[in-house]
Amino acid sequence: MSMSQLAISFELFPPKNVDGAGKVIDAAKTLAALGPEFISVTYGAGGSSRERTLDIVSALAEGAEAPVARHIACADAAREEVDAVLRNYWSAGVRRIVALRGDGAGGMGGVYHPHPGGYAYASDLVAGARAIADFDISVGCYPETHPEARGLQDELDNLKRKFDAGANRAITQFFFEPDIFLRYRDAAAASGIDMPITPGIMLQSNFDGLSRIARLCGAFVPFNVRRAFEACGGEKAARDQATIEIATSICSRLKDEGVETFHFYTMNRSSLAAAVCGNLGLNGDRRAA
Ligand code: FAD
User: 213 CA distance to ligand 1 centroid (A)?
Assistant: First the structure.
């Protein structure tokens, strides 16, 4: 397979304050030069407000550096409110969304209670978005199963519901063992799912932060990853290098197994994403002319 067949996308999160906007836009420019299918911007997660998501996405879209996908989460909101956001997206020219349930008031790892007048699950949100406009819709999926799922079949049934409701592709939660993704891909195919599943590759170089998120979302952190970070001590450059090497190794193995699309959770570290893409043979300015 030629390297140029690889399709990539990147996730950014909105800045915590107005002063941080310039940095995020600079990161987006670096990422745009790598020719992604889209750059997605998270919604409401990690302490960021919905308004900032809108602001940053508008700024990115205006720069037209790369197609932008807006995440939208439906937990804790009435259906009308979510529909209004979707209509605003469409009229602002946004054609791609990443449709998520979100985690509600309890946060990640808390107990989820659907809003009485809202979309209860992501599959409901996908159906709602489809009824509003012809969005390109990505959804989340979980190779190690979602923490609330009763097992792999439950997870796959839910993924199928999201595709049946009109999703175009699924992006996985991060994982570190390539076999975890490959087994999931096979299980999805065996249960009749024939839509694209893109592996989500984590670029978090802070091991404490990484361990915390992994614990909350049920992602296994193997010994080799722990050991690689422990060997770095407190040195940031070494941790960055370890992050690049771990991500490159996951992507290379998956590429050998025929995977042609990758989504990077950049944690706004565009230099790490660029280094991994360089290792995969995606160098230089790949933007469409
Ligand atoms: P769902 O697909 O609705 O599934 C959630 C759980 O409910 C699963 O266990 C499922 O099995 C179960 N379920 C589904 N339908 C039913 C039903 N009818 N009855 C009973 N149980 C059911 N969060 C944010 O807040 N903002 C973001 O920007 C964001 N971006 C993300 C991007 C990606 C690629 C991923 C993978 C996750 C992202 N998240 C984000 C996190 C996400 O919101 C959480 O993982 C959330 O817990 C689940 O969202 P979901 O869309 O997968 O939910």
Answer: 15
